[in-house]
Specification:
Helix content: 25-40%
Order of helices and strands: EEEEEHHH
Oligomer: single chain
Largest sheet: 3 strands, antiparallel
Strand content: 15-25%
Structural class: alpha+beta
Shape: globular
């Protein structure tokens, strides 16, 4: 009897700069330094921006650890402005919380008449 093993392939793993735990690439946010000479850190939602990237779990606890450890400046060559990352994480958690709390039900076409 032959057993077929389903392979999920090699999922790239990255290390969170906050908690230092490894996670799958699709579970973490990719962060990049703003290339225009500022010290801002940007969220690379599509994971396509140029430059060196750093990875962070999208949670406020990992963000707080990364700020406390000054991990942004080390990982992204002096970039320390985390306002965009903080806004993204805070708005992301609020959107997810309201989306699960309020289910939307749409009537079927023609059934409301």
């Amino acid at each position: 009897m032959t057993v077929a093993v389903l392979s999920t392939g090699n999922q790239p793993e990255r290390t969170c700069i906050g908690c230092r735990k490894k996670g799958k690439r699709n579970e973490l946010l990719r962060l990049v330094a703003d290339g225009s000479g500022s010290t801002a850190v940007l969220v690379d939602e599509r994971r396509r921006m140029a430059g060196r990237g750093a990875w962070l779990h999208p949670s406020e606890s990992c963000l707080a650890l990364a700020i406390k450890r000054r991990a942004f400046g080390r990982a992204l060559a002096g970039a320390t402005g985390t306002a965009a990352v903080e806004d993204w994480i805070r708005s992301g958690t609020k959107v997810a919380a309201t989306a699960t709390a309020t289910p939307t039900v749409q009537p079927e076409s023609g059934s409301e008449i």
